User: Fold these one by one.
Assistant:
Number 1:
Amino acid sequence: MDKLYMYINGEWQESASGERMEYFNPADQMTLGTIPRGNKVDVDHAVSAAKTTFEGSVWKEFKPHERGSILFEVARRIRENKNELARLETIDVGKPLAQSIADVEAAARYFEFYGGAADKLMGETIPIEDGMIDFTVREPIGITAHIIPWNYPIQITSRSTAAAIATGNTVVVKAAEQTPLTTMKIAEYFHDTDLPEGVFNVVTGLGNEAGARLSNHPDVNHITFTGSVPTGIKIMKAAADHVIPVTLELGGKSPNIVFADCDEEETLNGVIRSIIQNAGQTCSAGSRLLIEGAYKDEFLLLLKDRLEALTIGPGEEEHNIGPILSKEQYEKVISYVHQGRKEGEIVTGGNRVHIEGYEEGFYIQPTVIDKLTHDSEVAQEEIFGPVLTVFSFDTEKEAVQLANGTNYGLVTGIWTSHLGKAHRLADQIRAGQVFVNNYGAGGGIQMPFGGYKRSGFGREKGFEALKNYTQLKNVAIKYR
Ligand code: ADP
Ligand code: MG
């Protein structure tokens, strides 16, 4: 059993209350270890450390390229420990090892990308008049809070903290209570660098305790949150009390739009990968299939065969699909499946799978549901499991209407060999990312990522994310 500690002001800390809570391996629901159940006192301690460090001279005097060097050092440690980190992510989250390895690789690349960007964020000079110089400077925003969800802990911890540290902020992370392992490893790697104490802090505990205090704290200057819409709304309200900005990534109901003129093999692979990745517990999952009417029966038959050939089991055994995180998540997913069975027709899947030796784990067959009405809850709400709903269209206009016909707008995949058609659709799609003949572009470290509509706002990843963690100052100097 692993006993983890919070990381505050360069030290490993127990919670002030001494209370602890367990986290589990989704493969068999066995306890993996415990984390401190942090609360107000602990969060206040972490924010105070971050504030003292931000206001002190040591961190301020770090040159941008020196901040970058530290991020490169963390990336190096991640790469050195790639297999171990992937194993930890797999036992914690449940996902197949190959997916964890991809996540660890992406985490290293975030540290490298933002390490390299640290000394390349520039302002502008703006023409005013003769005898005056006007310029802008991007300054760190201060103490940034990072509230991490359980589904991609190493990637999400890395992408936002690397950008915040590159730009000279100090950070307080709230680890996901269900999956703390790799976030604490990142803390360990920072601990071994020359990063000043108090720049990188991690608190653990429950969302409505540690998380709520962090988002309510008057000294926090920015909140980055990835998670559910209801929690995102709470965080935005808490931020409003102190007039601070938030970056919210709140999930989706992202469609793959498939035309009869697509490359069938690539499309099948793309559609399948985007719904089974992390057993569908992915904000950007391709959870809706919109397919050209004349091609529907043929494509669905192929899809059904492929899905039925996939293997399901514990992530460490390298199956295609791992377990659902917890009983709570399982019950949520399976209730959508039951509703789908009642209101529509199950094309394939729809059942729990019992795996010998892992009877306590919650495994679900990849499931396709057809013949729903488009306004049904199953077709509109984020299920967060390997469940795909299917609709067909006859015209581009119908395809766009269906694609845009939910409250979400995170990602859209378009599959066609007609480039003009792809452009026409991309123009009309209301989503933060559009992929044509691929889904995800292999991770997309460099590409801005975030939502339209209720999928949130603000962008993470890429150069764009650096703007979240800076505020712009304009300086006008008269020299004549
Ligand atoms: P889920 O229900 O799938 O866990 P959440 O959006 O509730 O998704 O959780 C994402 C992250 O937000 C977790 O780190 C969780 O602890 C945190 N969280 C949950 N509730 C709150 C809250 N009221 N305030 C701040 N953070 C919260
Ligand atoms: Mg776990």
Number 2:
Amino acid sequence: MRHGDFARSREARYSQENALRGSAILTRPYIHPDAKSALHCDGVSLEALARRFGTPLYVYSAGHIAERLGLFERAFSGIPHVVCYAVKANSSLGILRLFAQRGAGFDIVSGGELERVLTVDRHAAERVVFSGIGKTAAEMDLALRSGILLFNVEGEGELELLSERAAKLRRRPRMALRVNPDVFAETHPYISTGMREHKFGIDIRRARALYKKAGKHLEPCGVSVHIGSQIRAADPFGAAAQRVAKLIAELRKDGHAIRYMDAGGGLGIEYHAERPFDAEAKVREYAAALMPAAESVGGITLLLEPGRFLVAQAGALLARVLYVKKNGAKTFVITDAAMNDLIRPALYQAYHEIVAVAPRRSSRKMVADVVGPVCETGDFFARDRELPPLKPGELVAILDAGAYGMSLASNYNSRPRAAEVLVEGRRARLIRRRENVDDMLATERLATGL
Ligand code: LLP
């Protein structure tokens, strides 16, 4: 091995990058503490976690999540605001509790998400915003009874139903229309939402007319927008916020006391370890794009709905290599985790770093596809990836899996869902035990007597 090769290898860069631990621009909490140690999450060895809890295993750093939330709190400290964590990114109770304990709010999109939030903090409803284009009457009733902060209404039919339910339950809920600002944001087409052809929101040009229809059972007090997810540039957020600010000024002229601007979520992260990423600077840029628009109309509480940015990089999916197999010219590393555990690569061709948990002295590399056992060609975590040579029985960590990992997991191929562990400094706590066969079959019945 030539030393220069090692220094340039991705793993070496990865460790160097993590030398920044403790600073606010910390990218990931996963490090090799020294050349002889296994990969750690904060103070806990992933080898020890795999031995104790088995694999596949989701591991999260509580400290990292708190740090990311702190970046938002600091960047937006100049304006009244509530950070409403987007529950869909990771809805595990142990994760929600971290946010509740720090006074964060929540962005929900279903009655189930509201139940989860109320399970961790029964007083959290006053900090909950309810988004989503298909709210049912039962979900509305639950949210009305809980007294949530804001309904983000996404269509005329929904406006009518909400008004009806509010009248029935004798409530007058605060509501915003989610407008579609027709702003283009560079991201994967499946997670872009802010253009006229998307199913989300109401055409911003029709919004004024609809606010007039809100009627006496609803209190129109906000305007909301969400243009998509994994958006790396700040400009589209700024452009959308300006359009919303203009609408707020018009609505106030129409007599509506608008005091909330919900800017949605969507701030992107960097999934590639070798590309620089300064999380603190990103949030500052984001704040600099949003705040002038909010300040231009005055008297506004800004609501923010970040999901991925807060939890993605805190999490890794730990998997064990089952087999290494060659088919023609290709090598496949088959792990015990699969697309049912983490569907992002299969669904969006998403890139996730994959690192060996055991320390490496050599710079030798292999090129392989990292795949799961599910019977689909789309079941892969990486294709033609340069990796350190891996053998059956070894552990790998699939990084940046804290957002849209476990929350999108399924039982496809009748695979029980993974366990989850939350690391707090040197302590690790199981926040979800591994599913077993009884869990999987619990809701099913054998039809008899037909
Ligand atoms: N607010 C609303 C109304 C949303 O629809 C979303 C995400 C968020 C907030 C949070 O966005 P974030 O800050 O996490 O980007 N499964 C995809 C992402 C889907 C995002 C859906 N909506 C993925 O794995 O990339």
Number 3:
Amino acid sequence: MSSNSRDEVLDRGGWRLLARWMRPEAAVLAVALILGLVTAAVELISPLVTREVLQRMNSHTPVTGVALLLVGVLVISTAIGYVQMVMLGSLAERIVRSVRRSMLASLLRARIGATRTAGEMASRVTSDTTLIREAATGSVVQFVNGIIALVGSLALMAYLDVILLAFTAAVIIAGMSLALLLMPRLSRLQQQVQEQLGQLGERLDGTVRAMRTVKASQAEDRELAVLYDRVDDAQTLGVRAVRVEAAAAMLTGLAVNVVLIVVLVVGAWRVSTGALDVPSLVAFLLYVFALTSPAGMIMMSVTTMQSGLAAARRIDEVTGLDRESDPDDSRDDHLTDQADVRAVLELEDVTVRYLPDQPPALKSVSMAVPQRGHIALVGPSGAGKTTVLSTLLRFTNPDSGRILLDGIPYERWTIPAVRSQIGYVEQDAPLVPGTVRDNITHAAPSTSDDEVWRSLEAVALDRRVRSLASGLDHTITASTLSGGERQRIAVARALVTRPRVLLLDEATAQLDALTESAIIGAVRELATDGVVVTVAHRLSTIIDADHIFIFEDGSIRATGTHQELLSTDSLYRELIEALQISSATAP
Ligand code: ADP
């Protein structure tokens, strides 16, 4: 075995993870193990009792007492077996629960951009965790019970006849070593199957999200073909794993059968020479039969353990996701005299890079966001406007330069302190799962219904919500509401917190006139006592702004009012002309 594959069988990393999850349950695990020992011991007795019955029959002694003993042994071992299984099952569920919870916590606390796709993450939380269930509990106990039963049987067989045992052990060791050699391969295959399932989840998630587009493009068959490919690959790999597993199981079974033959032949010879009596040979044979169960148990537990360890590593990638963290000396209670500072937020020479080998998305950008008013960020797509919002929200950290809130650098504030000042409307305005009320009060759960209705009025959605069967308690999904309505829900959600700064990533699509005027009205209202920063795509928003920043290639190209920029900046004139044409031709 190469050191690499030996590492895979022993899987030190995976073991450490499993051990960490099992540690809180060590006491229960120990009790289950002891119960297992008792069952194993009880089962070991029965061949000896059988021998006793046979020997008494030979000497014409009554066997009732011994038969009753056998029944008693059976009842006790069955009862203990039941208790042990329930204990282990509940323990496994507890471990799965705590692993799932820590995965979910990591997912929601992860840095934006650290996670993989939703489908892949969902598959890890739901499917991989079930694989560690068995590995963490059943298979550990099975393994230990199996070893004990094996050692116990071998010891009692030695007591019956050492010579016979020597032959038996040789065959068993040969069979099991062959089977164990197959394990690294099995582990690799099982990991590949899980990876394939993760990819299926990822692809399916994307396809379901784009369902309308898929149907409109009549691409169902092509999408199906891609999904089927993933399913087929999982099957191919699964079948390969089954073959290896079957080979391992058969080798073990074969070893046992060969042992039976050897025991019969060698045993017959020992009986003929008078070294062994027939009842002892029968008892010995019963132990050989009994050996199949621990041998199978050990093989099975190693197999489950392998897939559990692979799953543990995949789970660890999730629990180990890069978390958002506050700098050490950050606080959320800096006393600032807000009247003293000119700008609520300020960027100073901020450079942002998403990936080390990519050109920066923002290059030395400096801008001040005043306490009040409406600021528009405009420019071609890819210019860095959305990155400004992400950086202000601390989704992305600048490579260099600094950002100030009330004149104090971001590093000295906690992340919650910064975000509590800022409202945010994402470009595609996703709904959060739940009712209208859940959606509006998302950032401020204690908001009263009156305030919820006021914010709905502000975006002209109150009548629409009243028309829903259960009003504020109506569960809304992306298909219940139009794009414009979703946008207005998102604005209303941001409005209820009365943020000092509202960041609005305007939808690029044309919105209906009602939505447009409702949003502008709400923005205007908020801009009188706070500031609104809009990534603007619509002419009306741009003209409405008090101050405009034009972005190009990650830098601020020009800044000023609409009138000033019209006369000074050629790119701005081009942008406005294009918008005028598109709004003139809009329906
Ligand atoms: P805008 O909002 O002006 O259209 P963005 O701020 O979204 O521009 O993007 C600025 C640049 O950063 C673009 O070149 C874009 O491709 C890149 N970019 C944006 N988000 C990411 C990301 N998550 N990973 C890598 N590159 C990104």
